[in-house]
Amino acid sequence: MSVSGTPSSSGASPSKLRVVMAQLDFLVGDIPGNTDLVIDATRRAAQEHQADIVVFPELCITGYPPEDLLLRPSLEVRVNEALERLKESGLGPAIVVGAPIRSGSLLYNAAVVIEKGAITGRYFKRFPPNYQVFDEKRYFAEGNDVLVMDICGVPVGITVCEDIWKDGPVEDAARAGARLILNLNASPFDTDKQARRKALVERKARENRVSIVYVNLVGGQDELVFDGGSMVVDHSGVLAAEVEQFREGLFPVDFLCEHHCQPVSQALPDAPSLEANVYQALVMGVRDYVNKNGFKSVVLGLSGGIDSAVTLAVAVDALGKDRVRAVMMPFRYTSSMSLEDAEAEAVALDVQYDVFSIEPMYDAFMATLAGPFEGTKPDTTEENLQARLRGVLLMSLSNKFGSLVLTTGNKSEMAVGYSTLYGDMAGGFDVLKDVPKTLVFKLAWYRNTLSPVIPERVITRPPSAELAPDQKDEDSLPGYDVLDQILNLYVERDFSADAIVAEGFLREDVDRVVRLVDINEYKRRQAPIGVRISERGFGKDRRYPITNRWKSGK
Questions:
Q1: I need a surface site. Which of 124, 294, 302, 446 has the fewest CB within 10 A?
Q2: What ranges in 350-472 are assigned the alpha helix state H?
Q3: What is the 8-class DSSP label of residue 551?
Q4: Is residue 63 annotated as involved in ligand binding?
């Protein structure tokens, strides 16, 4: 291991240093556009904030995570072109940007320092993560060096994301003389992530007697949402500045650098409630997925139930009412209450609203199937046909008008397979895919505190798919308060069935839920992606084989 960087030209330090945290939203693969964003942000940071240093998120040049774009042969050429543009742009402040950099035969997740038209430092991330949603060892080698360099007369250490979670990089930079550490991040959201980040950065700063600037990405990328929450912690471990989560912008912090680099404290934002935080994550995830993929609008089935009601509210808050279309598709089992509530939701949010009965289509299908179905009793086949007819209608509207279909299934339903392939699972993005049903109820109450758009009885009445007379979800599932606890233990915390029973749950409930989770992996593989809000969502986080003979229990 070696220490690299430009040594300080003088023992004297300036009395004041202004660092701007560029908490911005970058688009994966748009290297020219991302480079434009860096240039524009740096110029604004200089003009509006008189920045000395501007710090950008991890891999901002490519966007994060670039995944197998990192394997493209032209990657190195495109990144080098971007760095040349940054060097030639006449930027005043020093900038620290994230980019994939090849050195020899190996590719590294790097931080690059550019000052006065030249690259003055490069740092290669030492701990590429390979857990949960992260797969960096597929692409990146591990760096070995420490980078402490003179930037504006201050000895500054550079680290990248996971490096701050491990022992070594911060400690080595502090021992090498760093008084300020800049940490570039692409840390995705989950429900208590910001609290864990703050505790970590505060501890690292306090133990190493060094101030830390933690800059995080903001924005949605497929199922991941990056919430920002950039922060500055002083050398004694005190939080001096924190940026609101889900807020894009440039955020300056002043440092007094006589003995320590002491940040000038700022007013801290209030900690959001769980419901507010999750709701913001869903809104940002939908907005960025729709806009970054070029969809004109979205369409969804509005059933009068709570899942579609929350999905509709999120869609309108993300995109505006003029880009959202809601469709009620009643059948003989649809209650008048559902019809009334769906219309009330559409009126409250002022979206385009259509009602298309699926009764004639159902009758036509059943007439066609009368021969092969002769002598059989009605079962889930007829129920699933209703859902599939609705899926056909929504996909037809999608094709005709260029609208993305938003599906409305929640995590509890996806876990146990309480959904229909090519029916209510037909669509491009599932807003509530990682939201347990019990949290859906809380989100509905929360959204109504902003403005009342969901009728109260939608939230309080027993959930039903309304695919059969007097049907209730709890006819075939444990109550959602019990179901969600079992699912949390099994799916997110990897408890065995026996261990869940030992927590006080009925063996009958546990065995039934675990079996349903296991046998429905094939459905989840075919489900649309959706916003990840937990530490372990279905998709990137949890990859179970469809064909297997693993016996649940121990």
A1: 294
A2: 359-368, 370-373, 380-401, 411-416, 437-450, 456-460
A3: P
A4: no
Q: Is 125 a catalytic residue?
A: yes
Alpha helices in 27-74 (DSSP H): 31-49
The pLDDT assigned to 9 comes to: 39
Q: Tell me: is residue 464 an annotated ligand-binding position.
A: no
Specify the DSSP element, H or E, that contains 344: helix 336-349
Which pLDDT value is given to residue 12? 41
Q: Is 58 a catalytic residue?
A: yes
Cα angle 412, 472, 534; round to 5: 10
Contacts of 429 (CB under 8 A, 6+ apart): 286, 289, 290, 298, 404, 405, 406, 407, 528, 529, 530
Instruction: State the catalytic residue, choosing from 125, 204, 433, 442.
Output: 125
Give the max Cα distance, the chain: 93
Catalytic (active site) residue 244: no
Cα 58 to Cα 43: distance, rounded to the nearest angstrom: 20
Q: Is 412 annotated among the ligand-binding residues?
A: no
Please, what are the domains in the chain? 15-268 (3.60.110.10), 276-369+377-472 (3.40.50.620)
Rg (CA), the chain: 26
- Structure tokens belonging to residue 27: 């688009």
Give 10-residue mean pLDDT values along the chain (554 residues). Answer: 49 73 98 98 97 98 96 96 96 97 96 96 96 91 96 95 96 96 97 96 97 98 96 97 97 92 93 96 98 97 96 98 97 91 96 97 95 93 94 97 96 94 95 97 97 95 71 75 96 94 95 94 94 90 85 78
Distance of CA 474 to CAs 153, 464, 471, 481, Å? 66, 8, 9, 11
Report residue 493 as tokens.
């915390």
Whether residue 398 contacts residue 405, with contact meaning beta carbons closer than 8 Å, is answered with: yes
Nearest C-alpha neighbor of 544 from the set 451, 415, 439, 377:
415
Helix (H) or strand (E) holding 224: strand 224-227
496 is in an annotated binding site: no
The confidence score (pLDDT) of residue 260 equals: 87
60, 152, 161, 257: the active-site residue: 161
Tell me which amino acid residue 120 is. T
Backbone phi and psi for residue 537, each to the nearest 5 degrees, phi listed first? -95, 170
Q: Is residue 131 a known part of a binding site? A: yes
